[in-house]
């Protein structure tokens, strides 16, 4: 704070300090205390606490129907609402397929509710383990959480060189990878990094907080693993990784995020990220149309936090005004979702984030091309050789399988009525996704 509360003023709070003083004030007086005079370090912490309360309120709302139809409505409703809130040109409804991650484990025969999404794991992303799952093994809890994940892929056809092409092929949106508590911990961690950057405790090229000279310009960025140049800088360095610049290594909590995404098969073990960039958006901040530089290999991914926003895709995107863009395909990014880009979705289609309607944090994780690594880069042992969790066990039958007996395939001309009925009955029990 600004120091207006002196040590003598704590007497009126019955020895309880600042909290005791606040309890003696009316609601309007508390608002007056918080309305001005907060220092740069206190503002992010206060905002984080407010957003945490708002997110908790959102998480208490009824959950969407746990079905393919419910998943579709979950995406379509925010998509329409975002269009009504902003003055962007109308874009078509997204075309996509939605499906639950298919896993075959010793838990696959049981029924799990959305409360399982709250299960805390001992991987450093949650503060404490919940009591309800204390009897489960760590592997068991992870398998239950993996079962709750959903992902969507997308289709949008454009004519490229006179040929119809799905320019979104390779684009995937994963949800329920991180629960509310885990998201809150990541957000708090980002704010601590921001404070460190403001205090000069991070390397010079790690933290950037440019002056906001117009709408959409001036978002805060924090880079780890490598220094990436968005445009030609004052030293004449072109866009891409600056190999002779040093930034801070990936922080511990972000390494835990990477481990989860690889273990849970959101990212492949052949493309483990060794760099990341944090974007802190204020209302109205944006990212203009672009294709991610090929100094980074595919796939890469972005984790969205704090508030929902939309991302626009298309082989051609138009600038409508400051922070406003239009394109043929618009997709809402739910809070806590992970967007994976590869294939046409990363290399043919451009993407952009129009001015966001509320404060937002995104973290983009990417693997650098081996030939573009910074000269002093050292591989982190914690990020080497991460293995995905097996989603099936050899002694467990696949849920799509059904028993085949010799009566199902009798010799030709010998399929009697009994055999015919037995075979058709088994096939009718086969699970279709």
Put the structure in a nutshell:
With 433 residues, the protein is of the alpha+beta class. The chain contains 9 helices and 19 strands.
Distance between the termini: 56 Å
Tell me, rounded to a whole number, the average pLDDT.
76
Poorly predicted parts: 1-15, 61-94, 100-114, 393-433
Structural class: alpha+beta
CATH class of the largest domain: Mainly Beta
- As a percent range, the share of strand residues is 15-25%
The rough form would be described as: globular
Gyration radius (Cα, Å) is 25 Å
What order do the SSEs take from the amino end to the carboxyl end, as H and E? HHHHEHEEEEHEEEEHEEEEEEEEHEEH
CATH architecture of the largest domain: Sandwich
Largest sheet, in brief, is: 9 strands, antiparallel
Instruction: For the largest sheet, list the strands in their spatial order.
Output: 1-2-5-17-12-19-10-7-6
**Tally of separate helices:** 9
CATH superfamily of the largest domain: Alpha-ketoglutarate-dependent dioxygenase AlkB-like
């Amino acid at each position: 704070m600004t120091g207006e509360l002196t040590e003598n003023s704590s007497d009126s709070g019955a020895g309880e300090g600042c909290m005791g003083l606040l309890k003696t004030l009316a609601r309007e007086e508390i608002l007056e205390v918080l309305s001005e005079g907060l220092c740069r370090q206190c503002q992010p912490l206060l905002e984080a606490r407010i957003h945490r309360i708002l997110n908790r309120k959102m998480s208490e709302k009824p959950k969407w129907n746990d079905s393919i139809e419910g998943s579709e409505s979950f995406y379509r409703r925010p998509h329409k609402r975002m269009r009504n809130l902003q003055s962007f040109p109308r874009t078509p409804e997204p075309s996509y397929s939605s499906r639950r991650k298919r896993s075959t484990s010793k838990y696959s025969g049981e029924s799990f509710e959305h409360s399982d999404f709250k299960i805390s794991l001992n991987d450093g992303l949650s503060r404490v383990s919940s009591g309800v799952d204390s009897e489960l093994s760590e592997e068991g809890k992870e398998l239950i959480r993996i079962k709750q994940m959903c992902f969507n892929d997308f289709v949008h056809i454009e004519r490229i060189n006179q040929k119809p092409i799905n320019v979104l092929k390779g684009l995937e949106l994963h949800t329920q990878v991180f629960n509310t508590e885990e998201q809150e911990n990541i957000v708090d961690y980002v704010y601590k990094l921001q404070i460190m950057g403001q205090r000069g405790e991070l390397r010079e090229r790690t933290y950037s907080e440019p002056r906001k000279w117009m709408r959409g310009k001036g978002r805060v960025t924090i880079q780890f693993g490598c220094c990436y140049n968005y445009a030609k800088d004052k030293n004449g360095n072109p866009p891409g990784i600056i190999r002779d610049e040093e930034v801070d290594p990936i922080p511990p909590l972000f390494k835990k995020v990477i481990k989860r995404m690889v273990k849970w098969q959101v990212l492949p073990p052949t493309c483990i990220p060794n760099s990341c960039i944090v974007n802190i958006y204020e209302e109205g901040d944006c990212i203009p149309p672009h294709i991610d530089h090929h100094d980074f290999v595919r796939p890469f991914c972005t984790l969205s936090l704090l508030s929902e926003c939309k991302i626009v895709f298309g082989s051609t995107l138009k600038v409508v005004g400051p922070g406003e863009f239009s394109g043929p395909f618009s997709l809402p990014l739910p809070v806590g979702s992970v967007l994976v880009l590869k294939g046409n979705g990363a290399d043919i289609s451009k993407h952009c984030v129009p001015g966001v309607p509320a404060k937002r944090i995104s973290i983009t994780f990417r693997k650098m091309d081996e030939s573009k690594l910074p000269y002093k880069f050292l591989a982190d042992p914690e990020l080497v050789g991460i293995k995905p969790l097996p989603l099936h066990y050899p002694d467990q039958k696949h849920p799509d399988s059904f028993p085949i007996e010799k009566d199902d395939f009798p010799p030709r001309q010998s399929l009697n009525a009994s055999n015919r009925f037995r075979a058709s009955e088994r096939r009718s029990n086969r699970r279709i996704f």
